[in-house]
């Protein structure tokens, strides 16, 4: 039984989710190591967990082509978004200024991934 090929966009979303998650994990260990934010942030276990959710969301898209894999990916990426909210509410991530916009844009990208996966729902088995 042959599977239909995975849409290229799903592969891109999975790859980017894993890459962005890895970046968040590095930030969790090292703080603002790339200087992306204008104010330094301290290393945080919570940031590591948020990044792990993103990575798991990406991995879920590569483990299987079934709908449950896509649903799991959507759940993990949703957890990443909720994790961002937690990081802002607890003061780990900035809640105002240009850095808050960067956090918001990152969340919007994660939301776009979820919307895209929803639009591609029928491409999963």
Entry keywords:
125 residues, mainly alpha, 4 helices, elongated
Can you walk through the features of this model?
The protein is elongated and about 45 Å long. The protein is mostly helical. The model has no long low-confidence stretch (mean pLDDT 91). Helices cover 70% and strands 0% of the residues. The chain has one domain. The protein is built from four helices and no strands.
Tell me the number of helical segments per DSSP (H or I, 4 or more residues long): 4
Count of domain modules: 1
Shape: elongated
Percent helix range? over 70%
Low-confidence segments: none
Largest sheet: none
Oligomer: single chain
Query: What structural class is derived from the secondary structure elements?
Result: mainly alpha
Fold blueprint:
Blueprint: H1 8-30, H2 45-63, H3 67-89, H4 97-119
Helix pairs in contact: 1-2, 1-4, 2-3, 3-4
């Amino acid at each position: 039984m042959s599977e239909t090929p995975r849409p290229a966009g799903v592969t891109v979303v999975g790859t980017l989710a894993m890459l962005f998650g890895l970046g968040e994990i590095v930030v969790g260990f090292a703080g603002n190591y790339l200087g992306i934010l204008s104010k330094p942030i301290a290393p945080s276990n919570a940031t590591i967990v948020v990044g792990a959710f993103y990575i798991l969301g990406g991995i879920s898209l590569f483990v299987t082509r079934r709908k449950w894999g896509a649903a799991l990916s959507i759940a993990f990426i949703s957890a990443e978004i909720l994790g961002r909210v937690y990081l802002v509410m607890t003061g780990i991530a900035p809640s105002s200024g240009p850095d808050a916009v960067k956090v918001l844009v990152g969340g919007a990208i994660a939301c776009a991934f979820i919307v895209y996966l929803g639009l591609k729902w029928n491409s999963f088995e």
